[in-house]
Amino acid sequence: MVLYASGEDYLEAILVLQRKMGAVRSVDLARHMNFSKPSISNAVGLLKKGGFLEVDGNGSLLLTGLGREVAEQIYERHQFFTRQLIAAGVDEKLAEEDACKIEHAISEESFRKWKAELEG
């Protein structure tokens, strides 16, 4: 399954919520992302079908190994670009928004090399 930026955003949001709250349900994700419950339900179905997500008997969203790997990769990029933009003088809110766009557009190779150059 091809995972688009929106799917990566859902996985990242689930990871962030799990770190804050532990168990995450669809309603929590809907509130966090400010999306409708039907939109979340559709996305959860697609992510389950793709092997990125499971839902347990209590309705909690659980990242699979693959889902966690993708979520952590996207979250790492998001944090890196947010820090870099803030360090360059960009307002924090704008830095967050722009980091979300950049994290999906850059290749893994370019990201790793850029990060190594700046942090190495």
TrEMBL record:
GO terms for molecular function: DNA binding; DNA-binding transcription factor activity; protein dimerization activity; transition metal ion binding. It comes from the Bacteria. SMART domains: HTH_DTXR (SM00529). InterPro entries: DtxR_MntR_Metal-Reg, Fe_dep_repressor, Fe_dep_repressor_sf, HTH_DTXR, Iron_dep_repressor, WH-like_DNA-bd_sf, WH_DNA-bd_sf. Keywords: DNA-binding, Transcription, Transcription regulation. The keyword DNA-binding applies. Pfam families: Fe_dep_repr_C (PF02742), Fe_dep_repress (PF01325). Residues 1-64 form the HTH dtxR-type domain. Coiled coil: none annotated. PANTHER family: IRON (METAL) DEPENDENT REPRESSOR, DTXR FAMILY (PTHR33238), IRON-DEPENDENT TRANSCRIPTIONAL REGULATOR (PTHR33238:SF7). Belongs to the DtxR/MntR family. This is Metal-dependent transcriptional regulator. It comes from Acutalibacter muris.
